[in-house]
Amino acid sequence: MSGPKPEDLYATMLRRNLYVITTTPARGPGMKEVLPAHLDYQIKMERDGILFGAGPLFHEGETVPYGGMIIVRAKNEAEARAFADADPFHAAGLRQYTLTRWMLNEGAMTVTVRYSDQTAVIG
Known about the structure:
Layout: H1 6-12, E1 16-24, H2 31-47, E2 51-57, E3 67-72, H3 77-86, H4 88-91, E4 96-104, E5 111-114, E6 119-122
Antiparallel strand pairs: 1-3, 1-4, 2-3, 5-6
């Protein structure tokens, strides 16, 4: 049985480079005080079109996060690292991070915009 060649399938994929910042720990001394600045920074990156997504990470079956993941749009690794370094948690030395380039190929996003009540649903 023959089908499309992998290179033909890859040719139509998004192939968008993003950068994944994995941070640890999720909690610790001093974090509560810096949390508002961290959230403000995340919201600013979101509004500036830099932040693709972010949120806590959980081990299977756990309800307390062990760390966080932040995915950013950046021109290159150096720019992504600058975004990570500027995070108030990282700048204050309260969290450490790893940086990984991720190529987004497949997936989908559904957005519903309701004109009648001016709401939007992402699902």
